[in-house]
Amino acid sequence: MAWRNPVNLRYTYHFVAVMAAVLMVAGCANVDSSTPNPRPQIVSISVSPTTASVQPSATQKFTAVVSGSSNTTVTWQVDGVAGGDSTHGTIDATGLYTAPAAAPTPATVTVTAIAQADTAKTAAAQVTIAAASSAVSVSLNTTAVSVKTGNSTALTATVQNDSQNKGVSWTLTGAGCSGATCGTLSTTTSASGTAITYTAPATVPTPATVAVTATSVADTTKIASATITVTATATGAVAVNLNATTVSVKTGNSTTFTATVQNDSQNKGVSWKLSGTGCSGATCGTLSTTTSASGTAITYTAPATVPTPATVTVTATSVADGTKSASASITITAAVTGGVSVSISPKRVGLTTGQKQTFAATVTGSTTTTVTWEVDTIPGGNSTVGTITAAGVYTPPGSAGAHTVGARSVADSTVSATASVAITDLAGMFTYHNDLSRAGVNAKEYALNTTNVKTGTFGKRFACAMDASAYAQPLWVANVSIGGVNHNVVIAATQHNTVYAFDADASPCQTLWSKSLMASGETWVTN
Fold first, then answer.
1. Could you give the CA distance from residue 249 to residue 301 in angstroms, rounded to a whole number?
2. What pLDDT, in 10s, does the model give residues 280-313?
3. Which residue, 477, 457, 461, 353, is CA-closest to 403?
4. Of 89, 198, 314, 510, which is least packed with CB atoms within 10 Å of its CB?
5. Which residues are 156's β-sheet partners?
6. pTM, whole model, 2 decimals?
């Protein structure tokens, strides 16, 4: 790099060192090596997305891209109010919009980003606040199933708008039975989406039907029931039983089937096939396998279009006795185009080992706004890739590397959003240019590369005020406990002999502490 003003060479050199240090360790600064006579630049700004639908109190992340200037910061407004208000929603400095608790009138508001480099340049997005139903509802994975005496089937209840995830309570009733003579349940309570097991009694009750009921704990007036028909198991005879006899699946979506075979002494299992009067082959859908062992689930995926008629039959036939089979009726329904969508915030994160990160997911297009969290496609993650709680709190593993955090819609499991996480085990930058070689290399950088260090994905995140210029190399230390809380810390010293400790990750800037090293009677001098 050539400098045109040798008088200011010392200051320019140290300025680059300071900014390079922040770039290396925090990924938060752009280096501007302007010439004495820079050419005029035309500033432009864009916002994405340009339209969004958000439920009351939910969030939506907006991203502003400023080009034509090294100053890429923006200020945000909602309907012309800086930062928004409680009626129309608020937006923070990172572009995270939070909808009001109730939809305003009209229900559409305008989110605007203003370029600080040229406040005449703005970009806007339209946000519709769509009120969601708050009523609790309960649904079961099946409404009718046949189970042979002594055998079992799985039942799953899904509760919508169960904000505290209280789940359901389960009961069994029957006109011809009571207690264990109706069968047994593996548990009397379960969380939404968690399967329980029903086991039929040893003898068939009279009448042979049993009702299983799932009641919302949050609202006991909301229930869902399934009818279980208990049939006798012939001694020594092969019998096939399916976990469900009727099910509805949207185009392109999937469901699971499990066949249980009694008296299959060699465990030959079943063969599977699909049939339908209005379809053939893949137009009826697909199965993950054509054979399976007793009790092993397979996956059915609906076709891309609804057949006519819209009913498909899946049949499991015993391999040991081809005369014994069980079938289920599948009704194919059209998936709503542009229906469920998921967004995740933040989209990119850099962490140190031992540093946690909370992610937020926003689901639109469904009253079911819950998600399941994954790390590298593993539900909940594990000790190798890191773990994530139901609340979206990610804890990285003990080793460095890059991972992907995903949020998958419970309403539509085919829809998800992901965020990238880079984890470093760099303990800190303790000397000028990182080490005694003075090369300035950070060999433990896992987030920044030549593909993402560019306008739109890389730039200054925040600035911190100090009492004078800092010509000394800022230092960075990972996982420092201050006030009982771990922080990644930037240490900087100024011309006025003041030392500052800043949180390296907090935006806007958070000063953890500062200390003047001036002795009594001393003063600082200008250059």
1. 8
2. 999 999 999 999 998 888 999 999 889 999 999 9
3. 353
4. 510
5. 195
6. 0.39
- Interatomic CA distance for residues 432 and 485, integer angstroms: 27
Side chain identity at residue 275, one-letter code? S
The Cβ-side half-sphere exposure at 513, using a 13 Å CA radius, reads: 7
Q: How far lies 171's CA from each of 54, 146, 181, in Å? A: 37, 18, 13
8 Å CB contact between 278 and 308: yes
**How wide is the angle at C-alpha 470 spanned by C-alphas 469 and 475, nearest 5°?**
160
Residue 106 CA, chain-centre distance (Å), reads: 30
**What is the C-alpha separation between 435 and 442, in angstroms, rounded?**
9
Question: What are 121's strand-pairing partners?
Answer: none
pLDDT confidence tier of residue 133, bands split at 50, 70 and 90: low
In angstroms, rounded to a whole number, what is the distance separating the alpha carbons of residues 80 and 369?
29
Calpha distance 345→92 (Å, rounded): 13
- CA distances for 433 relative to 8, 11, 119, 443, angstroms: 21, 17, 37, 12
Contact between 84 and 75 under an 8 Å Cβ cutoff? The reply is no
Q: Which two structure tokens, joined as six digits, stand for 186? A: 């593996």
380 Rama class: left (phi>0) / alpha (psi -120 to 50) / beta: left
Give the C-alpha separation, 51 to 62, whole Å: 10
Q: Identify whether the C-beta of residue 350 lies closer than 8 Å to the C-beta of residue 369.
A: no
Pairing state of beta strands 378-379 and 371-375? antiparallel
Q: Is 11 helix (H, G, I), strand (E, B) or coil?
A: helix
Q: In terms of Cα–Cα distance, which of 502, 527, 525 is closest to 513?
A: 502
Pairing verdict, β 223-231 and 209-216: antiparallel
Per-residue pLDDT of 319-365, as tens digits, reads 999 999 999 999 998 776 557 889 999 888 889 988 899 999 998 87
Q: Is 335 helix (H, G, I), strand (E, B) or coil?
A: coil
Report angle CA 344, 66, 20 to the nearest 5 degrees: 85
Q: What are the C-alpha distances in Å from 443 to residues 233, 420, 438, 448, 476? A: 67, 19, 13, 11, 15
